[in-house]
Amino acid sequence: MVTKRILLALSVLLNVSLIVYLLVSDNGVGNYRALKADTYAFTQEQNRLDEKAYLLSHEIRLLQSDSDYVEKIIRARLGFVKHNEILYIFSDGKKKIPVGVRE
């Protein structure tokens, strides 16, 4: 009877110490949650980068095969115009003041 109580007390003590270890240690529940959050963040970043890579590869295919798209990009990004075209540039109405100059 006494040995059963001693074994029961030891098993309860062992269980309590294991629970405390799981809650407090570096390999415990807190670390698991942090790793799970990191995994989720990395997955989201990977999905974002996969989408960006897809869009860039699509743009590369267009630049290699579609001359109209190439012309559109050149005109939009570099401001090129065709022969006999006139480019009108309208200001946005905001007066730009150089840094360090007072009005």
TrEMBL record:
InterPro entries: Cell_div_FtsB, FtsL/DivIC
GO CC term, one of those recorded: cell septum
Alphabetically ordered keywords of this record: Cell cycle, Cell division, Cell membrane, Membrane, Transmembrane, Transmembrane helix
Transmembrane segments: 6-24
Keyword Cell cycle: yes
Taxonomy, superkingdom: Bacteria
UniProt KW Endoplasmic reticulum keyword: no
GO biological process annotation, one example: FtsZ-dependent cytokinesis
PANTHER family: CELL DIVISION PROTEIN FTSB
Name under which the protein is recorded: Septum formation initiator
Organism for this UniProt entry: Halodesulfovibrio spirochaetisodalis
